[in-house]
């Protein structure tokens, strides 16, 4: 599976968000602000997971089908299960 620059950039932004949360904790910032930033980080991670699955679904389907003989419906169900599991 190939991870493009868009995905890498998203992950770098998330990394920056989490470093910011750590800094906020070290500076004893208000709990609401920390939770707000953690929620934003979690949302960004969820969106990145969705992007990875959607971007690579066709490629993964072809690769899995070639190696395991699974049909498209089974592969799509597995992709959806990955998304649900990530929550």
Automatic annotation (TrEMBL):
GO terms for molecular function: DNA binding; metal ion binding. It comes from the Bacteria. GO terms for biological process: negative regulation of DNA-templated transcription. This is Cytoplasmic protein. The lineage of its organism: Bacteria, Bacillati, Bacillota, Bacilli, Bacillales.
């Amino acid at each position: 599976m190939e991870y493009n620059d868009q995905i890498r950039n998203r992950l770098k932004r998330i990394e920056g968000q989490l470093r910011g949360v750590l800094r906020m904790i070290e500076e004893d910032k208000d709990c609401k602000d920390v939770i707000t930033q953690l929620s934003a980080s979690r949302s960004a991670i969820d969106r990145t997971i969705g992007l990875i699955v959607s971007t690579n679904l066709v490629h993964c389907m072809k690769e899995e089908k070639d190696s395991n003989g699974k049909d498209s419906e089974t592969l799509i169900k597995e992709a959806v299960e990955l998304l649900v599991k990530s929550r």
